[in-house]
Amino acid sequence: MAALAVDVDMTCVFMSYIQLSLYGVPAVVVHGNSLSVEEWSRWYTPAYVWGGWVFRQNLSITDRIPEDDLKLQELQKTELLNVLAELDKVS
Predict the structure, then answer these.
(1) CA dist., res. 9 & res. 5, Å (int)
(2) Which residues of 59-85 are buried (b: 16+ CB within 10 A; e: fewer)?
(3) Which of 36, 41, 49, 88 pairs as cysteine with 31 (C-beta 3.0–4.6 A)?
């Protein structure tokens, strides 16, 4: 399970992010307005990033993949390639 939380109030975004992170829930917390389909910022919990959820499921209030998700995917691909290169050196 991966969760998507959306709120207009930044204080609620902070509270949601902290609670979901502490409980180890893979989630994306969006500071935005779900009625007007606006996103101002996205917060990824550690369980979401470390679990590779960005490759498994698109969590967004729109149908398109957010630019932040694409950047996170590229970053994780680069890190994975670096780890594989290090493993090649060891073996």
Answers:
(1) 12
(2) bbbeeeebebbeebeeeeeeeeeeeee
(3) 41
Q: Which residues contact 66 (CB under 8 A, 6 or more apart)?
A: 39, 42, 60
Residue type, 2: A
Tell me the per-residue pLDDT of 41-81, one tens digit each, with 9 for 90 and over: 999 999 988 887 877 777 777 677 777 777 877 887 787 77
Of 21, 75, 22, 30, the closest CA to residue 48 belongs to 21
Match 């698109």 to its residue by tokens: 58
User: What's the structural domain count of the chain?
Assistant: 1
